[in-house]
Write a structure and sequence with these properties.
Blueprint lengths: L1 E4 L18 E8 L45 H8 L4 E3 L6 E6 L7 E7 L2 E8 L13 H8 L4 E6 L2 E6 L2 H6 L2 E4 L2 E8 L4 E8 L1 H7 L3 E6 L9 H25 L6 E2 L1 H17 L12 H7 L6 E8 L4 H9 L2 H7 L6 E7 L2 E8 L4
Parallel strand pairs: 2-14, 13-15
Antiparallel strand pairs: 1-2, 3-4, 4-5, 5-6, 6-11, 7-8, 8-12, 9-10, 10-11, 14-16, 15-16
Helix pairs in contact: 5-8
Length: about 350
């Protein structure tokens, strides 16, 4: 759903404009199903229990495709620090690992999150020029599909059982799952260009814990850790910063200025995410607080331009950003040339980005 309101009122079939106090609005919403017209609750826990063992096939390409600098899984914290130095910060997650966040001042198009559990890397999110050999960001979908033969059904053997992930057509196009050198890799593509945008490496156990696709199983059903209210507060704050950081990496990649963090706007965004979760709706229009302009005015935020992206039920904030990038309405906000400030609010698995340009006097 996309709403645009600007000073000059005009209307067309897909976009409409309304005059509201000389302000501009652009809203877009997304959940992980790709359904942008209405909210649909998806049961992500697991599908049916399988009755027969899966036949796990070995990859039909050569092993050891990754170079030494592309290997993350299994490295120790000391080995990561030797390569990249101390992390800029360490963020908690809703899973069994913590993120080590790396920002690269000398290359604003590069971003790295390393997931550490019991002193070892169990997952890594990589985007940019961390490695320029095998998984080069910007690699084409067709080339990697020729190498791996992307499939909508992926069988995974983990510690507690065997699991069969079912990828939708949208999953297969935007984030296929492949096995590389005995580990698992999600490839995130920019579907507007068919270029590789980022990748996420995971152990089999971490993949099962996160459940990024519909899954059936033999053995124990996949379960996520229980998270306390206090822990959620820290996780939500961390994911909001990750969404902000990675949004600016994407903007840098497209030659755009970085957004500035706006705390008052982030408070409004958090309130909307929380309200959507607690009141079980998914919309830019709050039943109690109204549209974005009304929420801004209620919090005394003066603005010239404003816009909003919302998302729900992604595995984490980084996945939500990749989802927004692949939806036309969200992409416009992410890559808008006139917005200057951004506030992000996360409440559990609901995500809101509020963009704005303040009045200048």
């Amino acid at each position: 759903m996309k709403k645009i309101i600007i000073i000059l009122g005009c209307a067309c079939l897909l976009l409409f404009f309304l005059i509201i106090e000389s302000d501009y609005f652009q809203n877009a919403e997304e959940n992980e199903t790709g359904d942008t017209e209405e909210f649909q609750v998806i049961e992500w826990l697991y599908g049916e229990e399988l009755t027969e063992d899966l036949e796990i096939e070995e990859p039909d390409y050569e092993e050891n495709l990754l170079t030494e600098e592309e290997v993350f899984i299994g490295l120790t914290g000391d080995e990561i620090k030797e390569r990249f130095g101390e992390p800029d910060r360490i963020d908690p997650t809703a899973y069994s690992y913590d993120w080590w966040i790396y920002l690269f001042e000398d290359d604003s198009t590069t971003y790295l999150q390393v997931g550490m559990h019991d002193g070892e890397v169990v997952t890594a999110f990589v985007s940019g020029h961390v490695s320029e050999t095998f998984f080069s960001i910007g690699g084409m979908y067709e080339d990697l599909d020729d190498l791996f033969t992307f499939s909508n059904q992926v069988d995974v053997k983990a510690t507690n059982g065997q699991y069969q992930f079912e990828l939708s057509a949208a999953d297969l196009q935007a984030r296929p799952l492949v096995e590389v050198d005995g580990e698992w890799v999600q490839l995130y593509f920019d579907t507007h260009t068919n270029e590789l945008s980022s990748l996420r490496m995971l152990t089999a156990d971490t993949l099962v814990e996160m459940r990024p696709y519909s899954v059936s199983y033999i053995g124990d059903p996949p379960e996520r850790p229980t998270v306390s209210y206090e822990d959620w507060q820290e996780i939500e704050h961390a994911e909001a910063r990750q969404i902000f950081d990675y949004t600016n990496v994407i903007r840098a990649r497209h030659g755009l200025e970085a957004y500035e963090w706006e705390e008052d706007v982030a408070v409004v965004a958090y309130g909307h995410s929380r309200e959507m979760k607690e009141k079980e709706f998914f919309s830019h229009t709050s039943p109690e607080y109204g549209e974005l302009d009304q929420r801004f005015e209620r919090n005394d935020i003066r603005f010239r331009l404003a816009g909003e992206n919302i998302a729900a039920m992604y595995t984490d904030g980084i996945a939500a950003v990749e989802g927004w990038l692949n939806s036309e309405g969200h992409r416009v906000n992410l890559l808008h040339e006139e917005f200057t400030h951004l506030g992000v609010g996360v409440f559990q698995d609901y995500y809101t980005q509020n963009f704005m340009t303040p009045w200048s006097f």
